[in-house]
Design a protein that fits this description.
Structural class of chain B: mainly beta
Shape of chain B: globular
Strand order of the largest sheet of chain B: 1-18-17-14-15-6-5-8-9-2
CATH class of chain B: Mainly Beta
Distance between the termini of chain A: 67 Å
Largest sheet of chain B: 10 strands, mixed
Number of helices of chain B: 3
CATH topology of chain B: Immunoglobulin-like
Oligomer: heterodimer
Number of domains of chain A: 1
CATH architecture of chain A: 4-Layer Sandwich
CATH superfamily of chain B: SoxY domain
CATH topology of chain A: Metallo-beta-lactamase, Chain A
Shape of chain A: globular
Number of strands of chain B: 18
CATH class of chain A: Alpha Beta
Structural class of chain A: alpha/beta
Distance between the termini of chain B: 26 Å
Order of helices and strands of chain A: HEEEEHEHEHHEEEEEHEHHH
Chain lengths: 314, 303
């Protein structure tokens, strides 16, 4: 029995070694399941989870848009394995070249899959602050990936920064199909970028919109609340959040997030005025929202800590 | 309200030594970091025994139970911003002379050292620190008779020294050196004011004030690497803070990279009747930031 176990272990190790050294190939991975939100617009809705070996980093919504001449990818997932699975999903539907990989912001669950898309003619696109944010965070993200993913999925990850920086707005042409990219002021992060498919009115909001999964604050709470007012005024046909179900109506989809963030701001301001410490606030603010969100216990205290540091300067 | 001035930078050899020590620790730590287990309480206690000599020499340390307390979250929500609340009431007429905060497993274990200007048996001080891996966090108080008291807390946090704390890098440098002082209402009595024998407070001047000093500064640890250039983002942190009221020293702090971005110190002091709190901070680039802040009466106007 022990010899069998050793043989199996050796086989698994050999397999991992092969996997770690092998170049990304679309055929490696089972394709991600995607839904066609609108004609030519495909989105994979990821589960609510923290990055873990079992999910291989598949915890954020990712998608792609197919034009007459080319394809654009919007976010690439939380590991190269997810990136390869997304690539497989694309190749199952079209062999058109992938002209652009757009990253909606700096968080690793949205862009660690980038390296699966490196190739001739593929440009990576992000907010003008994305390259710097990624450079500053890279050692932390790589260290975190090594702790969170299985060794085979974490080995040799390379972070791929943008080739094209968006300041204001930018149109990308996929051949008879235009995407409008917009760089936003600091909200969820300081490098938030949205993607609008003009043909269908489908708006990829990245993590400017969370549905079901507790919004996470890593930019500016007051900035995010202000930006949400501007976002709500737009007319669009379909919205794709960074986490959670697609296409819930606009601006209706914003309402729970707005309620949570407003309660977060009001609660933290009350704590500061009452002389409660940052540690006390982390235990006391937002409790009434606990049952409304996935991953509340994980992220609410972190949000309160970030909000406290921002609002105590008011 | 705040002003900037340049002075000669501190001795470059000190900076080089700090940088070399940090880089060496980081280089040694990186291969182990991938998939490594967090140190156990026993292992980090062993770390304390190894560094104790550098911190207090051969001096005996008295267990601070009942005299000195350090509060910290058992599991930190943000390893780059771990709040510490330290309180003490010294017995036998002793006064608090100095406080040292040590984080055993950090690349720079001595987070800060405070020396105090007022002769008081009581101490109430809060700040926020970076914690790099699961570690004991220690408060060591030195009394005016030389006695050392220590209390500690075990905190589960990791990555604080290299974590990207900056929410908006543009804002960080636009705001560099800006200061604010808050006077939070005493939501809970953190320290019981005690009058030392032989000290008669001046009329109207013995009011206990709680103030929070805040300074905008990225406090770069020097342990973050710019992945595009493969160069370390140079260390630049606030290493010196002096606070006084009407010319009387309240405290002086020497600090290192273990203090969080936007360093903040909340503390209690006896008002001496002077209306102004003066704060001066210096960073490792030699940049000086200073400000004068009116000392506010407590809510309710009770003097």
């Amino acid at each position: 029995m022990r010899r069998v176990a050793l043989a199996v272990a050796a086989f698994v190790v050999a397999l991992a070694a092969v996997d770690a050294g092998a170049p990304a190939a679309a055929g490696d991975a089972a394709p991600l399941t995607v839904a066609e939100v609108a004609p030519g617009v495909f989105v994979h809705q990821a589960p609510y989870a923290l990055i873990a070996p079992a999910n291989r980093g598949d915890i954020a919504n990712v998608g792609f848009v197919v034009g007459e001449a080319a394809v654009a990818v919007v976010d690439s997932g939380g590991s190269p394995a997810v990136g390869r699975a997304l690539l497989a999903a694309i190749r199952a539907r079209t062999d058109k070249p992938i002209r652009y990989v757009v990253n909606t912001h700096v968080h690793p669950d949205h862009l660690l899959g980038n390296e699966a898309f490196r190739g001739e003619g593929t440009a990576f696109v992000g907010h003008r602050k994305l390259a710097r944010a990624l450079a500053a965070r890279a050692p932390f993200y790589l260290d975190q990936a090594a702790r969170q993913l299985a060794p085979a999925d974490a080995a040799g990850i390379e972070l791929v920064p943008p080739d094209i920086a968006v300041d204001g707005m930018l149109r990308l042409d996929l051949g008879g199909r235009a995407l409008v990219l917009e760089a936003h002021p600091t909200a969820h992060t300081d490098a938030d970028l949205t993607v609008l498919d003009e043909a269908t009115g489908t708006w990829f909001l990245g993590d400017l919109l969370f549905v079901g999964h507790l919004p996470t604050l890593d930019g500016s709470l007051t900035g995010w609340l202000a930006e949400m007012d501007r976002l709500a005024a737009r007319q669009v046909a379909h919205v794709v959040p960074g986490h959670g179900p697609l296409d819930l109506g606009w601006p209706a989809a914003l309402a729970p997030q707005r309620r949570y963030l407003e309660r977060l701001a009001a609660g933290v301001r009350r704590e500061i005025a009452a002389g409660r410490s940052i540690a006390q606030a982390a235990e006391e603010v937002g409790i009434e929202e606990r049952d409304a969100w996935a991953l509340f216990e994980t992220f609410n205290p972190h949000n309160v800590t970030a909000a406290y540091q921002e609002l105590e300067w008011e | 309200m705040t002003s900037h001035a340049r002075r000669l930078p501190p001795a470059s050899s000190l900076r080089a030594a700090i940088f070399a020590a940090c880089a060496a620790v980081l280089a040694a730590a990186v291969p182990e970091a991938a998939g490594a287990q967090a140190p156990t309480e026993a292992e980090t206690h062993a770390t304390w025994l190894a560094i104790r000599g550098d911190v207090v020499g051969e001096r005996p340390i008295v267990d601070g139970t009942g005299i000195l307390a350090i509060e910290a979250p058992y599991r930190a929500h943000d390893a780059a911003v771990v709040p510490l609340d330290i309180t003490a009431h010294l017995p036998d007429g002793k006064a608090v002379k100095a406080l040292t905060i040590v984080i055993d497993e950090n690349p720079s274990p001595v987070a800060a050292t405070f020396t105090f200007g007022q002769r008081r048996a009581d101490l109430a001080l809060s700040t926020r620190v970076r914690i790099n891996s699961y570690s004991f966090v220690r408060a060591i108080v030195e009394a005016d008779d030389g006695t050392l008291y220590m209390s500690e807390r075990y905190v589960k946090a990791s990555g604080g020294c290299s974590a990207p704390a900056l929410k908006d890098a543009d804002q960080a440098f636009a705001n560099l050196g800006k200061m604010k002082v808050r006077y939070p209402p005493p939501a809970e009595a953190l320290a019981t004011p005690a009058k030392l024998p032989g000290t008669a407070p001046a009329a109207g001047a013995s009011r206990l004030v709680r103030a929070q000093i805040m300074i905008r500064h990225p406090n770069y640890s020097g342990l973050q690497m710019n992945q595009l250039t493969q160069l370390y983002i140079p260390a630049r942190f606030v290493n010196d803070i002096e606070v006084s009221q009407g010319g009387d020293k309240l405290f002086a702090m020497e600090g290192g990279i273990s203090l969080s971005e936007d360093p903040t110190i909340a503390f209690e002091f006896q008002s001496n009747g002077a209306g102004t709190l003066d704060v001066k901070a210096v960073d490792t680039d030699g940049e000086v930031f200073s400000g004068a802040f009116a000392i506010e009466p407590p809510p309710g106007g009770n003097g």
